[in-house]
Amino acid sequence: MSYLTVPLHPSHTKKGFTCGKELLDNYLHIQAKQDVKRKLSACFVLTDEDNNVKGYYTLSSTSIHRDMLTENVKSKLPPSYHHLPTTLLGRLAIDSRYKGQGLGGDILIDALKRSFDAAANVGSMAVVVDPIDDEAIKFYEKYGFTYIPDNGKMVMSMETIAKLF
């Protein structure tokens, strides 16, 4: 298994990272290290040759209520499962200096592969994202995520992700 990214480590330089979204910048600068330490999320980074962070994403466990799914998906699942295990792609950002080079798509695919591989050991039927704005919604739609009506989340099933690999 090879990935484009590596787990966040103290040797990675985060200081100069800016993606233009304060929430995502602050997360990497202030909170990511603590979340990793507390096992609240896993943070993976793409770095340059000097170990400067070019982009990052986070993964963690979550669940979605079956009522959030389409009837087609629900009909394939046992009715006793009210909350279904999923993987949360909580944050994904690319440093502004590297935008327009396709790195966002590259690390998204990296995150989907890592999520798919993990689902072989820990149940997860989908990857869920909670896009922070319209730009993020368009980005995830471009890669095949489906918008879940009434809650703002987007989802891609492991069945769909399996077809990528």
Explain what this protein looks like in three dimensions.
The model has no long low-confidence stretch (mean pLDDT 93). The chain is globular. The longest helix has 17 residues, at 103-119. 32% of the residues lie in helices and 26% in strands. It has a seven-stranded mixed β-sheet, sandwiched between helices. The termini are close together. 29% of the residues are buried. By secondary structure, it is of the alpha+beta class. The protein has a single domain (6-164), classed as Aminopeptidase. The chain is built from five helices and seven strands.
Pick out its properties:
5 helices; globular; 32% helix; Aminopeptidase; 165 residues; alpha+beta; 7-stranded mixed sheet
Summed up, what is this model?
The protein has 165 residues and is an alpha+beta fold. The protein has helices at residues 22-37, 71-74, 103-119, 134-142, 158-164, and strands at residues 6-7, 42-47, 53-65, 83-94, 126-129, 146-147, 154-157. The chain contains five helices and seven strands; from the N terminus they run βαββαβαβαββα.
Radius of gyration, taken over Cα atoms and rounded to an integer in Å:
16 Å
Mean pLDDT, as a whole number?
93
Sheet-strand content, in percent, reads 25-35%
* Total domain units: 1
Q: Percentage of helical residues?
A: 25-40%
Low-confidence segments: none
Strand order in space, largest sheet: 1-2-3-4-5-7-6
Order of helices and strands: EHEEHEHEHEEH
